């Protein structure tokens, strides 16, 4: 694999900004459609609508490292905006694993890309996982940021094992559907512009 060049990094930056904008729009819509559950299902809905961005990155910047950079930058933004510190880990780890699957494995092309996108999509679970697995530390971090008990109760109102399993399955379904939706949009609107 060739190394990333300056123009590749610029392109990844542009696609990362579009990816982040997509996440933000999905969050805004979910906030009105399913209030109280919007944060819990943002990874799945984002995966559904970000497939075309992923396809564009793979086609326009076919280099090991591009996926890792995109996912890591979003994870760093979560950290900078006050999310639980360990929320960054799944974002970076899943992005790197997606990169490895895409460029270092010998799976059939479609299987490889679908799998890498599924793994990449689970990176957005980073801010949510501490709700289930590090509750006390998460509560402590919220209190340290000046959040009151009412706010904390609201955050954990819908957190349960069933919702966790539903969120994980939803990401899988969203990523698979997102891949095919993204492939359709890419073929219809972008393929003729390939470099």
Automatic annotation (TrEMBL):
Keyword Nucleotide-binding: no
InterPro entries according to UniProt: CHP02185_IM
Highest taxon of the lineage: Bacteria
Transmembrane segments: 12-34, 40-57, 114-133, 163-186
UniProt keyword annotations, A-Z: Membrane, Transmembrane, Transmembrane helix
Pfam family, one: Trep_Strep
Protein name: MptD family putative ECF transporter S component
Organism field: Enterococcus camelliae
């Amino acid at each position: 694999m060739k190394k990333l060049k300056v123009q590749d990094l610029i392109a990844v930056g542009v696609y990362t900004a579009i990816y982040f904008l997509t996440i933000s729009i999905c969050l805004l819509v979910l906030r009105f459609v399913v209030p109280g559950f919007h944060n819990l299902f943002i990874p799945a809905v984002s995966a559904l609508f970000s497939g075309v961005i992923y396809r564009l990155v793979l086609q326009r910047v076919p280099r090991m490292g591009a996926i890792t950079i995109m996912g890591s930058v979003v994870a760093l933004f979560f950290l900078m905006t006050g999310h639980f510190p360990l929320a960054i880990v799944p974002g970076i780890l899943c992005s790197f694993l997606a990169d490895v699957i895409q460029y270092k494995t010998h799976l059939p092309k479609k299987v490889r890309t679908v799998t890498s996108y599924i793994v990449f999509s689970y990176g957005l679970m980073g801010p949510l996982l501490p709700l289930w697995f590090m509750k006390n530390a998460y509560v402590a971090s919220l209190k340290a940021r000046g959040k009151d008990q009412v706010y904390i109760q609201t955050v954990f109102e819908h957190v349960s094992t069933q919702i966790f399993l539903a969120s994980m399955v939803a990401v899988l379904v969203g990523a698979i559907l997102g891949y095919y939706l993204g492939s359709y949009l890419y073929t219809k609107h972008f393929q003729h512009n390939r470099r």
